Amino acid sequence: MDIINELISGLGKILGKKITKAVTNKTKTFTFTSLPQNLAELKALPEAALTDEYAVAALSLLALTRFEDDREESIAMLNFLKGPEPYTPMGIQQISDRFMDGKFYKVNSFFEGATPSNQYTPTRPYRIKVTSNPYSYSDNWATLFLSSGGADSLRPVKLRKKPSTGQWFLVDIQYLSDVRTPTAIDKWA
Question: How many CB atoms within 10 Å of residue 157?
Fold first, then answer.
């Protein structure tokens, strides 16, 4: 990317015009050896400083991995990521609705290696890719995207920066819409 920007800058000098840098998508991959079981374990992760918006997006997925087995711990982790505006009962219900009919496999679909054919079993260590695009940022807001092995397009998550602390907080998880049904339970597979 730096080479492309240098070439664009050099071309601008030759032409005597200012040419802006190339704008492309940026992706960060986060690797976790294990999944946090509670808020204390989530807070112990280096990404929990909340100063990297990509990390906060990845942590939101980790928090959701507990939703099926321990909803209270999952909500505690999500509320930590939400910062000054915790989830309302309606917000929790919206998340719960996304998992109706046993669709907890949606969460695993965002880990690297998880596909419908392997019933969304992630490879280990756990890896999550978070991407931004040229339109991701507006003032203190960011819309980042997670990649699912069961979807053709990236899925969004909204975040907001608190200027007084420099921390990014979760605003809205929008990546839980349906993904392809795991092959083992897909009646059309």
Answer: 23
